[in-house]
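Appendix C reproduces, verbatim, an entry submitted by the partner laboratory led by Prof. M.T., so that reviewers can inspect both the input and the predicted structure.
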Amino acid sequence: MLMNDTKAVVVAILSALGLGVLLFYFTDYATTVGNLGLLYTNTHVVVQVILALLFGINAGIMFHKMRLSTSKQSGVMAAGSFLAIMTGGCAACGVTLASLFGLGSVFAALPFYGLEVKVASLGLLLYSTHILCDNNCKLEN
């Protein structure tokens, strides 16, 4: 059971906090509100919080599964995590990991300035959480 594995829970919490800090460090809230509006910015923040939480949950489950045996679902988790980290912050308004690789202008050219990539990574993380939680996430009475 995952909740009984203290190390996996610590990994989950630290991963979620670490990615959350990284995502919000690269986000200039005032600039994003000024450039893209309040609705976009608030949606952006909500998606970032969900991404950080799902990333932490996935990291904890992967840590737990890797300690028990090798996991074949690591590709989906890695893809979702990579997209979540790549789209951290606002690609149109600040220095992000994507812009360090030269992809900032690609995200800025998208209709929602990279928010659609964040939603795609959110979908991948949700899918990988569903796959990884096959027997590890059952609650016992």
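The first helix runs from residue 6 to 25. Additional entries are available on request from the coordinating office.
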